[in-house]
Amino acid sequence: MEAKTQAQGGDSKKVHPLAIRITHWINVFAMLIMVTSGWRIYNASPIFDFKFPRDLTLGGWLGGALQWHFAAMWILVINGLIYVAYGVISRHFKANFLPLTLRSVWLEFSNALRGKIKHELGVYNAVQRAAYLGVLGVLIVLVLSGVAIWKPVQFHWLAALMGDFEGARVVHFVAMALVVLFVIVHVVMVALVPRTLLPMFTGRASTTGHGG
Amino acid sequence: MSRNEKFDRNLVAPGREIIKLERRIFMKQGLSLGALTMLSGCDVTDADSVQKVLWTMSRWNDGVQAAIFDVNKLAPTFPESAITQPFPFNAFYAETEAPRVDGSKFKLEIGGLVREKAAWNLEQLYALPQTSQITRHICVEGWSAIGKWTGVTFKTFLERIGADMTAKYVGFKCSDDYYTSIDMPTALHPQTQLTFRFADQILPVSYGFPMKLRIPTKLGFKNPKHIAAIFVTNDNPGGYWEDQGYNWFSGS
Q: What is the pTM of this model?
C-alpha cells in the first residue's frame, strides 16, 4: 500500500494506515490506565519485595484502581481485537511483520549495535518485526493471565495453565514488565529518530531529505 | 459511624489508618491520576463525571459476571496438606477487636422474602446437615490462602427457611456492623456454605464466630463473618465495601 502524493516541500509516502494509527493511540491510552492502576492494585499485596511509587499509580486507593482497571480492560481488549482483525484481514501483519527469521533478527541487531541502523520509512527491519510481533504475543498473555486472575473459578482451565491463581499473578506481572520494557525501548527509539513520531499521527512521511 | 468495620485483609490498625487517609485524599482531590494527566487530552479534573463512568462500568461488569457465572462450575478443592498455616486473619481491626458474640444467647435473625421467619439458635443451626470444603480464599488485594470450612450448604438452609429462590438477592448483617449481599445464583451454588467450623474447630472469634458465609466463587470481602441476620430481597442491599467502590458481584 504505497500512495505517492505531492505534499508541500516534497514527496510523501503513506507509512501507517488510519486503522493502525487509531488503534495504536487508543491502545496507548488504555495501556496507560491499565499499567498505572495495575501498579496500585499490586501495591495492595505485593508479590515481590517492593512497591510502585504512589505518584505513578492511578485510582487513589485499591477500590478506585480496580474500577479503572476493570473499565479500561474493555477498551484494551475491544481495541486489541479490532487491531488484530484489521492486521489479519488487510494483510498488514503479513506485509509488515513477515518474513521473520532468527538469523535476520540477529544480523540486524548486531548491525544496529555497531551503529549501522537501517531506516527505510514504512518498512520494518527484522528487529522491529520481532519486537512488534513479540509484544503482541506478550499482550495476549497479559490479557489471558488477567482473565485467569479475575475468574480463577469460571476459567479454571486458564488459571491451571499458568500454575493456578498464584501462578497467574506472576505471569500477569512478568507480562506487564515485558510490555513496559517494550514501551521504554520503543519511546527511546522514537526519541532517537524523532521523524518517526509525526507519521504515527498523520500516516505520512516525507521521502525527501534522508537517505536511509 | 461504627468503628467496627470488617474487611478482608490481614492488616491491623496502622494499615487501616493509611487506607482511611488514602480515601480522604481521594475524596478531597478527586482522582490521583499520576502520569495520565500529562498525556491524556481529556479534562480529568472533572472527577464527578469520571466517577460516574467508572461506577457505570462497574455495574456493567456486575452484569457480565452474572452472565459468566455457572452455578454448576465448582471452585477447585485441595488436599489437607495444601492448607495455609497459619491462615491469615482477615479484618480491618486488630484481632483483639473482633466482636465477642455470646453463643448461648445468640439468635440468627431471618427476614425478607422467606416463609419461616423464626430466629435460629446455635443448637438448631448445628443440627443441620454439614459438609466440609478445602478451598482457596482470594482477597480483593490479591493474596490468597487455602482453608478448611465446615457447615450447612447455604441452599439447604434457604430451603429450610422457605426462601423465595426467585428473589434476586440475599443480604447479610453482621455483629460488627459489616454488611454485604450476594446474587441468588451464587447463594444457590453447591459450594456456598453457612459455616460453623474452621479447621475442624468451632469457628474461632477471629474467623467469624458464630458463623460466616463461605463463598469460594467470590472474593473474600463477599464472605461475611459474625453473621447476625440473613434476609432475602429484590432490592440490592449493597455492602460496606461495595458502596465505597469495590465491585458488587466480585465473582471468581
A: 0.84
Note whether A44 contacts B35, CB cutoff 8 Å: no
What range does the domain containing A132 cover?
99-201
Predicted confidence at residue B92, as pLDDT, reads: 73
Which are the contacts of A147, defined by CB distance < 8 A and separation ≥ 6? A155, A158
When divided into structural domains, chain A yields a total of 2
Report d(CA B124, CA B211) in Å as an integer.
13
- The answer to whether the CB atoms of B245 and A156 lie below 8 A apart is no
| Shared domain check, A174 and A117 | yes
**Contact list, A44 vs chain B (CB under 8 Å):** 140-142
- Encode A93-150 in three state secondary structure: HHHHHCCCCHHHHHHHHHHHHCCCCCCECCECCHHHHHHHHHHHHHHHHHHHHHHHHH
pLDDT band, very low/low/confident/very high, at A119 (cuts 50, 70, 90): low
Report the pLDDT averaged over residues B124-141. 97
What is the DSSP secondary structure assignment for residue B146, as one 8-state letter? E
Is A7 part of any domain?
no
A68 and A105 share one domain: no
CA pair distance A91, A80, nearest whole angstrom: 16
Domains defined for chain B, CATH in brackets: 67-244 (3.90.420.10)
In angstroms, rounded to a whole number, what is the distance separating the alpha carbons of residues A56 and A36? 6
Q: With an 8 Å Cβ cutoff, are B34 and A36 in contact?
A: yes
